[in-house]
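Justification of computing resources. Each target in the renewal requires a structure prediction run like the one illustrated here; the chain below, 373 residues long, is used simply to show the kind of job we budget for.
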Amino acid sequence: MTSRGALDRFYSIIPAGGIGSRLWPLSRADAPKFLHDLTGSGQTLLRSTWDRLAPLSGEQRIMVVTGRAHRAAVEAQLPALADANVVLESEPRDSTAAIGLAAAILQRREPGVIVGSFAADHVIRNTRLFASTVKEAVAAADAGYITTIGIKPTEPAVGFGYIRCGGELAVTGAPSALAVKSFVEKPDLPTAESYLDSGSYLWNAGMFISRADLLLEEIGRNKPELLAGLVELAAAWDDPATRGPAVDRIWPNLEKIAIDYSVAEPAAAAGRLAVIPGYFDWDDVGDFASLSKLNSGGRTTDLAILGANARVLADASSGIVVSQTKRVISLIGVKDIVIVDTPDALLVTTTDNAQRVKSVVDALKISGSTDVL
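Resulting structure tokens:
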């Protein structure tokens, strides 16, 4: 370990992958949701993520893991991103491989580094509160915990996983740190209501902060073959002559598994996982229902409209319209509607059925209509 302060050793990792299939046809393989402005801020979600993290780790200490096809778009969004900090996936292998490879590369470059993983496609408001929460998480990570940030629930949401909290951990620099008893999958509504009433549960926001060596050690405990592949890749990574052959040989064979299952759940069971409650506004923009709520100030009676050239006429209607065309869209007396109008695909559903959009994407894949994916 080094005598440098914990925050000085902190490195941000932004996994920028996934299509966001529940936001089809807005989000697609060549334009995933992190490359869209979904809040009307004038910035993509990826750029907003970068701007939140840069004051914490510094622009030169942010690594982005993304698909080869998105490199140009990512670099256009993030001109300060160092070339050595672009990690390209030849194909998606889920979050353990993406975050684990970044951690393994950084651990080789800088032993003792503390890494934090933050999704590229989340919306967070109150960045000062976010920053103070991350600083506590870094302190807990420096104390030897794999640390996550859990969001204080504001409603009995069924679209999120939950974290069951234990007692206080008394970590210097992290007064809010709590032990994690367990991770809980997405519940049904009555269960979610009971979680909210108990006050002992937080939403799982998928943010993980840890010393890189301890994160890799945890992967190795539970998935030794996966760790071996990541370590071998990291050893070859910084030499252009060895990187390509290593990626082609190793990456496609890595196990696809989310970091929640490979690291967080077993670490919680062993008492090695801490959580810092986050009280900032957070949304993972998982479907059009959440996008509608996000853009209407939480008022379900309003109609949210996205699109620079949207031409929408509405009377006594609510929900969301996303328009990428100049077509006039008229709504009369419809509630909780979802309309997404793009040049080659049209989606019409309701906010109650927003989670089912993914099944449309699956059906299009089966039918061979991949030109609209």
